[in-house]
């Protein structure tokens, strides 16, 4: 389930001034990069790795001035790297050709916490500014000439994992750029080049959100050694507030545009909601409490929520359900419904249909009788079986229906 690729037309009755404001809001929300990268100076000690697969093998390497022989010895101590498909580890050298050590097979003196400040300033969502980052070491990867890792998205490990961090050690190599792709854009990070052009001893780093596709291009010479971390929010540790030094005026611009929009009466003359598709993807299923998910928003989604909170606008996460034939009103539901095996009566309006699903869940006979149909019946605008999209709802009106899931009028932003 995701919200990033859905195209929702701006309602045809939106006025020109409204369209312009929507477009500006959209541009601000889409302008944040889903990663941050650079180089960080280190002392030589931080580049020492102790490694060994079992009790009978032990090695040590300093990844500053390691010789090809030392690097070859490290390669021999590693296993071929697998990758995750449907929760399983698969070995396929057409897809990923590299070597790796698991976290219990190596130790490193690298001080990852030195990146805290930078990640908070450049990468951590605004509402998470005070929350500490918990870095969990994932793998040591070793790429020889000819090694690569085709485009993939990292397997999320645990609910509050929000991203990945790659540390690139300063072993001389060429090729091996990390290419990131998100929402139709692409960025290439050539850490080997960045490290070589820095006069100080340094490592390269790239932190990116968990839903960003990435790829390691083939290594053409030398050895590329990386250490990966899974990034979590650490809610148990004390919160630290950094004062960002970089200037990011998106918050102010978003707030000003919002104010302008709300000051333009009548925005929604008959009442209604203003809904925004989430920019980032989140894992969820029927058990997901959308209120918990609100705590884990990333990037622009989090920025939007902070602006809403700041302006005392009631905001919540909702799932948008749209009937197959668009004959009834859309429903912004406060939860994810179990549609597997549900049955759509032709004269149902969508809200009634969803309510009936709730009712039938514990009614075994009805469920048996109504097996099949629903997945086929709920379709998106292109005719494919519908996916579930999570939307923002930020503006409503006193005259709103009392039913929590009925929508009288929705105004949505175009995603493209
Ligand atoms: O080594 C890298 O640069 C990236 C490795 C990676 O994408 C992974 O381990 O999932
Ligand atoms: Fe990856």
UniProtKB/TrEMBL annotation:
One of its GO terms (molecular function) is dioxygenase activity. Residues 132-233 form the Fe2OG dioxygenase domain. PROSITE patterns: FE2OG_OXY. Gene3D superfamilies: q2cbj1_9rhob like domain. The keyword Ribosomal protein does not apply. This is Fe2OG dioxygenase domain-containing protein. Keywords: Dioxygenase, Iron, Metal-binding, Oxidoreductase. It comes from Cerrena zonata. The keyword Repeat does not apply. Its cofactor is L-ascorbate. It comes from the Eukaryota.
